[in-house]
Amino acid sequence: MPYPEQMVAPMRADLSDVGFKELHNQADVISAMEEQKGTALLVVNSVCGCAAGNARPAVKMSLESETHPDQLLTVFAGQDLDATDEARKYMFPYPPSSPAIALFKDGKLVHMIERHHIEGRPAQMIAENLKLAYKEFCI
Fold first, then answer.
1. Which of 85, 105, 77 has its CA nearest to residue 15?
2. Could you read off the pLDDT of 29-62 as tens digits, one per residue?
3. Residues in contact with 22: Cβ distance below 8 Å, sequence separation at least 6, in sequence order
4. What does the DSSP assignment read for the chain?
5. How far apart are CA 129 and CA 94, in angstroms?
6. Catalytic residue set
């Protein structure tokens, strides 16, 4: 069963308030990914502590760089189940992971940060990893 919306609303807002487009269903994901030109950052958001303490702060810090993705997209694991399942198809061959951060260029996965790269790492370190990926792929 999905988490209650009132519980996840502040966690959603943490990303949507900085410009992330929420993808709530399978059709939203397909549309966003199939029409994607340029670069897109897709965050699998989650209620877990590493999403709150590491992933979301890191993603927001990473956007303070001169170079950043053209599109900001997010799905919410445990809430938008069909959207999350569909988003994970685009992250193949990586196994399902929540949270996760994926960078795409012209619809192709070019950089991936899985949960085991998020847990126990400071947000600043994750943000620096993303900024380096932006410099390489978001030009």
1. 77
2. 999 999 888 999 999 999 888 888 999 999 999 9
3. 12, 15, 16, 28, 74, 75, 76, 80
4. -PPPHHHHHHHHHHHHTTTPEE--SHHHHHHHHHT--SEEEEEEE-SSHHIIIIIHHHHHHHTTSSS--SEEEEEETTTSHHHHHHHHHHTTTSPP-SSEEEEEETTEEEEEE-HHHHTTS-HHHHHHHHHHHHHHH--
5. 18
6. 48, 50
d(CA 92, CA 90): 6
Q: Which two tokens stand for residue 123?
A: 């947000």
Distance (Å, whole) CA 137 – CA 105: 7
Q: Where does 5-137 sit in CATH, by number?
A: 3.40.30.10
Give dist(CA 22, CA 42) in Å, integer.
10
Domain spans of the chain, in order of start:
5-137
Using only C-alpha atoms, what is the Rg of the chain?
13
- Residue pair 104/42 in contact (Cβ under 8 Å)? The answer is yes
Q: Is the pLDDT of residue 136 over 70?
A: yes
Count the Cβ atoms, other than its own, within 10 Å of residue 97. Answer: 20
